[in-house]
Amino acid sequence: MMRLGDLKLFVRTVKLDSFSNAAREADLLPGQVSAAIKRLERELGIRLFARSTRSLRLTGEGETYLPSAITALEALAQGQERLHGEGNQLQGILQVAAPSDLGRNVLLSCFSQFRKEHPQLTLRLLISDRLANVFRDPVDIAIRYGCAEDASYVERPLAAWNRRVLVASPAYLSRHGRPAMLEDLSHHSCLLYMLNEHVYDNWKFGQQKIPVKGLLLSDDADVVRLWAIAGEGIAYKSWLDVREDVLSGRLEILLAQHLGELSPLNLVCPHRKQYSPAVRQLHQMLSRHLAPFAADMAAALANAEIPDSTA
């Protein structure tokens, strides 16, 4: 029988990128984490990780199973929350910081629905790609890509499976052709994103870093997405940001044979005491909203056109 603790250790090992880190977090020995993963693999009848002395990475089967594991754990947590439900109507002020593209185009409807369900709650939404400092800035929680650098933060996953994908519009591809390999990106106009004065012009795919260049760059991720839709070049975007554009045909996924960089989405607050009923319920709503996006990403990558690099 599958153990819940083994499933949790699997998800944490993926996020922390090593058995040792997962063991340290859970106050276990690395060997205990390794044994838990092996039990889970026996139960599932698959290999979840490809192990070597220097690296640990998910197998293809592990990549496929990860979203289901995360969804199952979140569903169990939500069930526990319902058992202990909140007797009082949420009220007060909740201040939330969210990234530009994601906040406007993906999460805004959730925030609006959350307010309707809790009419006594005041919701202040700060939309910006600048990373909010949840200790210094006037926010209660931040929704952000990547892991918190400060270990004292409380971090709850929203979309741990999320990856970046290469995308371009049909109009751009008809004019400039479709890259057949990662190295071909050097011959294309790439749309660059800038954050805190740092230009992201080295795009990561597994262990590879591909230098790219372009004449258009912005510190607003939504601008980069709109440029891509307008046919200005190739963008390397979070799947969450471009899902609707890919499903509608406004953008096409390129080089799907190369898995893009993991870009997990998390909800972050400065202290466990601030993980209030309002924050818990917002986290649950956002998790439910984003859960179907994982299957959409897997299907889009599987159905994307893969060019013949030998042609």
From TrEMBL:
The keyword Metal-binding does not apply. GO terms for biological process: DNA-templated transcription. Transmembrane segments: none annotated. The keyword Transcription applies. Keywords: DNA-binding, Transcription, Transcription regulation. Residues 2-59 form the HTH lysR-type domain. One of its GO terms (molecular function) is sequence-specific DNA binding. Belongs to the LysR transcriptional regulatory family. This is LysR family transcriptional regulator. It comes from Pseudomonas savastanoi (Pseudomonas syringae pv. savastanoi). The lineage of its organism: Bacteria, Pseudomonadati, Pseudomonadota, Gammaproteobacteria, Pseudomonadales.
